[in-house]
Structures are given as C-alpha cells and as structure tokens.
Design a protein that fits this description.
There is one protein chain. The strands form 5 sheets. The protein has a 6-stranded mixed sheet with strand order 16-17-15-14-18-19, sandwiched between helices. It has a 5-stranded parallel sheet with strand order 2-1-3-8-9, sandwiched between helices. The protein folds into 2 domains: 279 residues, Rossmann fold (3-Layer(aba) Sandwich); 110 residues, Rossmann fold (3-Layer(aba) Sandwich), CATH 3.40.50. It is built from 16 helices and 19 strands. Helix content is 39%, strand content 19%. Helix 15 links the parallel strand 18 and strand 19. Helix 8 crosses helix 9. The protein is of the alpha/beta class and 463 residues long.
Length: 463
C-alpha cells in the first residue's frame, strides 16, 4: 500500500498511482499533526451526537474535517509514504457556539456546543487557509515527519517539494502556501536537512523535474494553468491573474510518479539554489513577452459588473475562484493588477514568426484566430490544422483546414496550439513537427496571452 499524506498535490498523485495499478490511500490533513484517535473511532464518537446523514453531508461540504490519527497510518502497513507540504487551515472560533450541521432533509440540526464536539475528537471546524511564518511552519513539518519515522522506522518516506515561486515562471507565480512563497529558500534548506535525518528519505524536487522538461524543449504552460487570486496590499485586496504553480499535470505528474515509485535517495545539496534551479531563473517565453503590471481601482458600484464580466469570460476558472481566493471575497476587491496586451506582446511571444497556423479548428481555434486578427494583424493566420478528417478541405473563418501533418504546406513559421486539451495535443504536435524536419516552431501559450488580454480589458475600465 502506498500512503499519500497531505492535500491536493498528493491526492492527484494518488490517482496516478491507481491508474498504474498501484494500491494507494490518501490521508487528508487539514493541519500538521495527528488526531487523538483513528478516523473510524472519531466518526463513531461524533456519529453518536449527530445524525448519520448530517455528519455525511457536513463532511461532503467541507464543514467538518477529521484529523487522521497516527494509528490510521500504521494500520495501513505502508510500503511507501508520500508526504506533500500541505497548506493548513485556520480553526473556526468555536468556543461556546452552537453548530448547525446540514441534515438529510435539506435543513440543519443544531448540535451541542462545538466545543463539546471537539472535546470528543479534536479540531473539526476550519474556515480558511491559515497564515504562518516559514520558520514555524517548517519546524512543525519536520516534527510531523519525525513522528512518522519513529512510528515506521524502515518505511521509505518520499517528500514532495513544491515549485519555487521564481518570477521567471510567471506571470506572477501563485502558491496557496504563503509561507512557501515568502520562505522557499529556508524551506529548501530545512528539507535538505530533514532528508538526512529521516533516512530512508527522498525529496522529489519539482524544480529539478521542471528544469529537465524545459531542457527537452517543453514550456511551463504545458503543465500549469493561470488562475485568479487575491493578495493583500497597502491599497487593499488586489485581484490578480497568475500562474498556479501547485497543480501540475501531463508529463510533469507522470515524472513525479516515476520518481516517487523508484526514489534514488540521493541527498539534496544542503543550500539553495541547487544546480538545476539555474535554468528556472531565466524568464520563460511568455514572461519575456509581457509588459509590467498596472493597477486600477475598483469602485463598489462596479463590482457586480466586474463579477459578471469574469464569470462570462472565464467560465471554469471563475467557478473555482471562491475556493482559490478564500482570503477575501470578490466583493471586497479594491483594485486589479493587470497587463495591457498589445501587438508587441504577441509578436515578442511568437519570436517575430508572423506566418501562423492554428492547431485546432474548433471554438478555441476560432477564438484565437479572432484575437490575432484584432490585436496583432501583422501576424498572418494562414489556416487551421485539425485531427478531424471531416473538417479537412473545408474553410473556417475563411481559412482552409488541413490535416495535422500539413503545416509545411502552408509555409508556416509557427504552429499555435488552439485546443482546450493542450497538454495532450502539444506532445502530439511536437512529434509531428520533429518528423517533418522543417523550421517550424511550436507555441502553446497563446491561450494564456488571450486570457491576460481579457483580464486587461477589465483592468482598463477601472484604471
């Protein structure tokens, strides 16, 4: 059994283990530390106070989190333990309050005081991602891992180290774990020391994996997405769009799985930066093309229009926004930090390759075609490539559609991925271009440039 401890990063990795036929169990930790007793006993004790339906509903809605006990881990008899750096959650101030817990009929049951419930099983109610200093966080994380090592002396421990929030990975790299953003160099040093103390222990360094993929010709936008987030500032809560450096998929996640499955236990260099980080200190292709951020004040009367604009333009990204900006609600945003995307940004990103074909003749392809025509008309869109034979020989937006191997027939200088599934498509297109042997470059990040362009329009209205 492979036991994965933490939150979203190892939860996703657990699905990869299972997809490869490996037994995996994820233990979610809302805070560093172990509960008073096992999960089964905690649920039994609390089930005696609440209806079964109410308890199930509260857990499903994220109203109650149980803290796993050390015995839960030991009882699984793990062959390998994978631990992420989890973001912790603040406890709700529950003393002397009544808890309203959803029940099966759609109403709420009023329980005894929350304090009485927590006297039974330990902390239950959490309200938002916690803030803490890097030194305090890594001290508690090291003690957390030390307890695991004392309980299971010979079991390999694999620690997942996040990407360093380096400016070159932008735009505006974002991590939910704020103490990591503020103290990743200190965190690296502590993890290097912890690896030596908790042997057998291996650290999967996301920086090393990303550096290896970039050296092979990949771009960071092939593994990550942009997201909205709100940061505090002297001028009030500021809404930004930046790169989510926590949720990485595609080839990246596969590489993490392989390293976790067969760790080398090679010690990290003791001090930051390790040699492989040098490649990440250089700005990525998209970051090089972007102008500086600008700030625009948001008036209270304009917030409903801003919310409607974002919901209409960004679809799924906006739907997940409430969770990602848990610190403040959109109604409290006082300013936007945005970038004005123009023709110079587009041509800089495309490295002055002006003869372009779009891979994907669907909705995304038509959107990016219109974007190029409006913002960078000097870039000539020659046509579309698409894997659907039913579209070959037809015209979309007045342009011809051809098969995926025919980029060279357009005398194109660039192929732009215009697909919602760019991670899978990018690998396929790259292989096709390598086979054709022509000087045609692949670009996967124009969709991100378009997203920043739309957010910039909202910012222009407030500036």
């Amino acid at each position: 059994m492979n036991v994965l401890m933490g939150n979203c990063q190892v939860s996703s990795l657990g699905h990869v283990f299972q997809a490869h036929g490996r037994a995996a169990k994820h233990l979610f930790f809302p805070s560093l530390g172990f509960g008073r007793q096992g999960l089964k006993e905690s649920k039994r004790l609390l089930g005696g106070r609440l209806s079964t339906e109410g308890l199930s509903e509260a857990m499903g809605n994220g109203r109650i989190y149980f803290q796993p006990g050390l015995e839960d881990l030991v009882s699984l008899n793990p062959e390998r333990i994978v631990v992420s750096l989890p973001h912790e959650y603040c406890r709700h101030p529950v003393q002397g309050q009544k808890a309203l817990v959803p029940n099966a009929s759609g109403g709420s049951d009023q329980t005894d005081s929350c304090r009485a419930l927590e006297d039974l099983v330990g902390p239950l109610f959490y309200c938002r991602i916690a803030e803490c200093g890097p030194e305090d966080y890594f001290e508690r994380f090291c003690e957390f891992v030390a307890r695991v090592r004392r309980a299971l002396p010979g079991v390999p421990i694999v620690i997942i180290k996040r990407l360093s929030p380096l400016a070159g990975l932008g735009p505006t790299p974002f991590s939910w774990l704020s103490c990591w953003k503020r103290g990743f160099r200190h965190g690296y040093t502590r993890l290097a020391g912890l690896q030596r103390q908790a042997r057998p222990c291996h650290v999967v360094d996301y920086d090393r994996i990303l550096a290896r993929l970039i050296a092979s010709g990949r771009e960071i936008d092939e593994f990550t997405d942009l997201t909205f987030f709100i940061e505090p500032s002297d001028l009030g809560p500021t809404l930004r769009m930046g790169r989510d450096i926590e949720h990485l998929g595609g080839e990246f996640e596969d590489a993490v799985y392989r390293e976790a499955l067969a760790p080398s236990f090679e010690p990290l260099p003791e001090h930051w930066p390790p040699p492989w980080t040098e490649a990440l200190l250089k700005p990525c292709r998209l970051e090089r093309a972007l102008p500086e951020e600008r700030l625009g004040r948001v008036q209270a009367s304009g917030r409903p229009a801003l919310a409607a604009f974002l919901a209409d333009c960004y679809g799924h990204m906006f739907k997940t926004m409430k969770f990602r900006v848990a610190r403040d609600s959109l109604s409290e945003v006082e300013q936007l930090a945005f970038r004005t995307i123009n023709a110079g940004c587009v041509t800089s990103y495309l490295e002055s390759r002006r003869r372009v074909v779009l891979y994907g003749a669907g909705t995304r392809g038509r959107t990016l075609c219109a974007f190029l025509r409006e913002v960078a008309p000097e870039c000539e869109v020659l046509g579309f490539l698409d894997s659907n034979p039913g579209l070959w020989g037809t015209r979309v937006m007045g342009l011809p559609v051809a098969g995926p191997d025919r980029a060279h027939e357009f005398k194109a200088q660039a192929v732009v991925v215009a697909s919602f599934d760019k991670r899978a498509v990018a690998a396929e297109v790259r292989a096709r271009l390598e086979r054709c042997g022509q000087d045609i470059r692949l670009f996967t990040g124009l969709n991100e440039l378009f997203a920043l362009y739309g957010f910039g329009l909202a910012g222009e209205l407030t500036a």
